[in-house]
């Protein structure tokens, strides 16, 4: 295992670094682990509609970055009191699998005396309150699993910056973001500093014999260029919504999903699928499967089934989507 030493606090840079490593790793590369921080940032899931997830006025007033991840899942708030981790692993599967990575994170936290536990598809909690969210995507034969650790994050900023779906909070049995969220700093000795936690966490993950490398000036510049060309662009972070004339939304076993259609004489002309779900395929593949299809229950099912036959949407099936589009009277 190896890690990269880097002092940036820009989420766009780190998502570009993940992608750069994927596309420049040798085929037999060892696992790369990154532990990083950001300035105040809202990170959106790949399939989310930006303006439905943030408070734009608050974001602008507080100068909070908005950056879209290349993975699915929900919007999160991060700042200097929050740590992000990334595993980049040689090997790609057909379906999302959080378990091996989350188990490793939980074991490491427990080793540090923190009573962490898995409490949902992609969350780690302490006594039922979330301290970590996880996300995952596959590209070019590699798996990227990344997540967050709330050490002493500003929860007030988190609550104000995000528009959290009330249905999601109710599903967790809570009324607010503050009630749902815990901070690791409240479960360690009062004198524990961020840097001690980060150093101990990193050492436990990496183990003995880990290799620490520095980016060359040329590599650093290449990552910055990728961040400029993709992850800092308005088109990536905001400009992905299209006009529609029919939409449905619901919370399914694998997460919230919203399907917006442009219909002409009950034929689907355009389709946009958004939400906090996870997918092991490019969502454009699923959207394209529906374009040109009659808005008919059996037709839609027949076009979706081949695309989703292998569990490509985590916890969401063809039957789930058809039931959302065509609810029983």
TrEMBL record:
Its EC number is 6.3.1.20. One of its GO terms (cellular component) is cytoplasm. GO terms for molecular function: ATP binding; lipoate-protein ligase activity; lipoyltransferase activity. One of its GO terms (biological process) is protein lipoylation. Keywords: ATP-binding, Ligase, Nucleotide-binding. It is an enzyme of class 6 (ligase). SUPFAM superfamilies: Class II aaRS and biotin synthetases, SufE/NifU. The keyword Ligase applies. The keyword Repressor does not apply. It comes from the Bacteria. PROSITE patterns: BPL_LPL_CATALYTIC. Residues 27-217 form the BPL/LPL catalytic domain. Pathway: Protein modification; protein lipoylation via exogenous pathway; protein N(6)-(lipoyl)lysine from lipoate: step 2/2; Protein modification; protein lipoylation via exogenous pathway; protein N(6)-(lipoyl)lysine from lipoate: step 1/2. Coiled coil: none annotated. InterPro entries: aa-tRNA-synth_II/BPL/LPL, BPL_LPL_catalytic, Lipoate_protein_ligase_C, LipoylTrfase_LipoateP_Ligase. It catalyses: L-lysyl-[lipoyl-carrier protein] + (R)-lipoate + ATP = N(6)-[(R)-lipoyl]-L-lysyl-[lipoyl-carrier protein] + AMP + diphosphate + H(+). NCBIfam families: lipoyltrans. PANTHER family: LIPOATE-PROTEIN LIGASE, LIPOYLTRANSFERASE 1, MITOCHONDRIAL. This is lipoate--protein ligase. It comes from Trichococcus palustris.
């Amino acid at each position: 295992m190896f890690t990269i030493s880097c002092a940036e606090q820009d989420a766009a840079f780190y998502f570009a670094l993940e992608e750069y490593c994927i596309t420049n790793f040798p085929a037999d590369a060892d696992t790369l682990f990154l532990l990083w921080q950001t300035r105040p940032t809202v990170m959106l899931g790949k399939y989310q509609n930006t303006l439905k997830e943030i408070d734009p006025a608050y974001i602008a007033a507080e100068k909070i970055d908005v950056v879209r991840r290349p993975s699915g899942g929900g919007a999160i708030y991060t700042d200097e009191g929050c740590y992000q981790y990334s595993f980049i692993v040689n090997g790609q599967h057909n379906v999302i699998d959080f378990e091996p990575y989350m188990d490793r994170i939980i074991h490491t936290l427990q080793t540090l005396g923190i009573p962490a536990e898995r409490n949902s598809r992609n969350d780690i909690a302490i006594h039922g309150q979330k301290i970590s969210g996880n996300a995952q995507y596959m590209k070019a034969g590699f798996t990227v699993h990344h997540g967050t650790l709330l050490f002493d994050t500003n929860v007030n900023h988190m609550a104000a910056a995000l528009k959290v779906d009330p249905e999601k909070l109710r599903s967790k049995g809570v009324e607010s973001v503050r009630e749902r969220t815990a901070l690791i700093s409240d479960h360690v000795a009062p004198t524990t500093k961020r840097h001690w936690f980060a150093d101990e966490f990193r050492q436990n993950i990496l183990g003995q014999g880990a290799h620490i490398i520095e980016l060359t000036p040329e590599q650093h510049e290449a990552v910055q260029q990728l961040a400029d060309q993709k992850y800092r662009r308005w088109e990536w972070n905001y400009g992905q919504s299209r006009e529609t004339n029919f939409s449905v939304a619901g919370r399914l076993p694998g997460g919230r999903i919203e399907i917006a259609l442009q219909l002409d004489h009950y034929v689907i002309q355009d389709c946009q699928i958004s939400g906090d779900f996870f997918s092991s395929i490019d969502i454009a593949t699923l959207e394209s499967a529906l374009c040109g299809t009659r808005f008919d229950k059996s037709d839609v099912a027949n076009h979706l089934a081949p695309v989703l036959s292998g569990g490509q949407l985590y916890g969401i099936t063809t039957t789930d989507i058809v039931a959302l589009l065509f609810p029983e009277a």
